[in-house]
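= Paired protein data =
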Amino acid sequence: MSLTTCTIHATQRAERAVYVSGELARALRLNGAKNVRVHLGSASVTAPLRLVKKAGNHLYLPLSLVTALKLPRTGQCSAISAGRGEMRIGPLVGVLASAFNNKTAPFGTLTSFMKQIMEIGKDASTLPFVFTPRDVRWQNGTVVGYFLQPSGSWIRKTVPLPDVVYNRLPSRQADQGISLNSFKQRFVKRGIPLFNWSFFDKWDVYDLLRNDEAFQHVPESHLNPSAEQIRNMLEKHRFIYLKPTGGSLGIGIYRLTYTPKRGYFARYRQNGKNVLIRFDKFESLMRMLGTGKGRLNHYVAQQGIRLIEIDSCPIDFRFHMTKNGNNRWVVAAIGAKKAGKGSVTTHVRSGGMLMTPEQVMRQVYGARGEQILQKAKDTAIRLAEAIERHHHHRLGELGFDIGIDSSERIWMFEANAKPGRSIFKHPSLKSADYQSLANIFDYCLHASQFKARRDS
């Protein structure tokens, strides 16, 4: 199948026919066909084929066919041969999100991000739109989606079911539940690929990798830890983290430390401040944590790792991974995060600071920094491939929190199926911000069986 880009025009011609330039007809192997079947998402129309003398790849559709296909706009998109006398245009890329009753900011604080996705999707010669679970009309095979207009405002249009769905539901609450799972499953049953199925719990990834070679990069962890497990881990590793399984942004995390001559320490964040408490006895620490009252249910205890440091502050890295048009995992961006003084995590909201990985590696390793960073990139790709092998649903994007210890061993602390984008606030990652979403649309072309053109 050959992929090309074409410019679609709406024409006032009375004949209900598909008008194709000679160049486009050759690219899509339509020469000699009397009729052509045009597919857009789940819709299709068949009409006589008419060749027109026009340089370039042009497709002219009379208004009757524009209406029948529910074509959302004219202009540039991708086109591919779908067999003898058939062509597909699009792809229609549906971005699944939550909407609010606000005309200027229909997706709340994520509205500017959705605009960015729409603009990059158009640059990638696709037909992107945003929709919510309530917008799908399964009986009619249509979606009432939000389309970004050149003016920057949003307009609602009815289109066929999309060729591919990029799940960007913004929260665990919005993305969970039997009804949501069944909703997403309906796309899969209709042969419409949907990727980034749902948020991971912290234990999900540990479970997925347990029997994989990549497991060597995951710290020792225990779900719903007992007091005895916490004691044993502290004696073995000297410090551990307690993390809520469904948490994000570092909220609810405790760092516990054991020093034989000084006792036990708990470090956490409360009311916007970093808190440190010392306990003489282990039992006092457990009482504060409420282990006997079930307060550590839905928590994971994770081995502490002595990370590389700058100015006595630990450093970890956020790796933003995407699939590309060749269905391969690539490192789209890396942000280095330096912990704030006294902070339990490296999150910026807890006093952390964003740096470039090159800055960090030069300061810590000098001339060897580039080599060690490449080793971390290779490890991140292997981890993404391993998670994908064992995951039940399609993935197109992952975020890893990765650390390097004093022995240069690489560790993966967390994997996120809906990675945040705070690292892209760093000025040096502006082009990576764009490229990460361009990769997503290349992957959409692949997933929807429009073959991507970029090799990177």
The chain has a mean pLDDT of 92. The chain has eleven helices and 26 strands. Residues 369-390 form the longest helix (22 residues).
